[in-house]
Specification:
Layout (H helix, E strand, L loop, with lengths): L1 H8 L3 H7 L7 H18 L2 H15 L6 H14 L11 H12 L5 H17 L3 H18 L2 H17 L3 H17 L3 H17 L4 H11 L4 H17 L3 H17 L3 H17 L3 H15 L7 H21 L3 H17 L3 H15 L2
Amino acid sequence: LRLADAHVEADRFPAALALLGEKAEDPVDAAKIALARGRAYLSLGDQAEATAAMRGAYEGFRGRDAGSLLGEAAFLLAQLLMNEEPDPGADDEPLALLGEAMAHIPADQTGFRASVHAVRGRRLMDLGRPADAVEDLVEAVAAFTAEGAFPQMAHTRLDLAFALLHAGRHLEAAEAAEEAGPMLLRLEDVVAERRSRYVAAEAQRLMGEEGAADTFAGLADDEDEPAVAAQLLEKAGEVLTERDRDAQAAERFAAAAERFTTAGDPYGAVRTRRRAALCLAWSGRLDDGLAEMGAVRDALGGLPPDNPAAVTWETAVTSYDEARLLASAGRVDEALARAEEAITGFTALDEQGPAETATRLRDDLLGR
């Protein structure tokens, strides 16, 4: 076993596996061999063989005085099974294995226990249980800090920020994300640092803080993918319009439309140009808003015809929003025509709520 481990450390996997092909009569020895085989196959990237070997090790250690070996086998098997699609109708086996790993890892192995806490927290997040994940991730951050394991602590702090965000603990999420960001920059992990800023921005947005708009816009400036940058700019616009900063929101929506166009997303471009038009009107520039809405209507003709329902929806929403602006400009007859178009489109899609909203607008215009 020691020689096989040395071969694995030296990347001599065939030599290690040749040694580990021998049988052992003692069940614990057989489980140790299976564990070593599993580690070797993990290093080779052979998920199927690694899973089979690790399950053999886990089953071999269970019910025997194997201590941390059972904990290690359960931990590694859990991580391998986490690569598979979970069965929604069954208890989660990886989560149960992680609990068993924690129960068999000695208290003085704080680094190992921190890793189990971190992985269990991520699994709970995957299962849609962020409030439960927080406890594990807090334990992991504390243990990694005590161990001086800086990279693990920084990345786990980011996981904790996500868990806090999804658990509705927005202020704590923002604080955790803001703490993680500089640490991740020290590690030169640019992608993770951007994720930390995104969590901070989402937390700010959910707390009603206007500063979220600048954070989203800053992320968009640093983003190479036009589609992602467009989504971030749209979020910035949403924050600003919720705070009645309509002139600035119009700029963000217009910038988002440009990025959506570059990304080849005509639906996103139409949607954000329409929102820019509304914000222009709400900021006191009604004529500019109407002009932009006319450009949006022209852009509807460029939507791909392979999704007629989506085209009908975008056309109906544009007609409704244009009717509102025309009504504000006193152009009632034109507003009525657009309201009727909206009603027809929403009705064709069986969108009862929007159809009723458009009908109320038409009735108001008719003075009913």
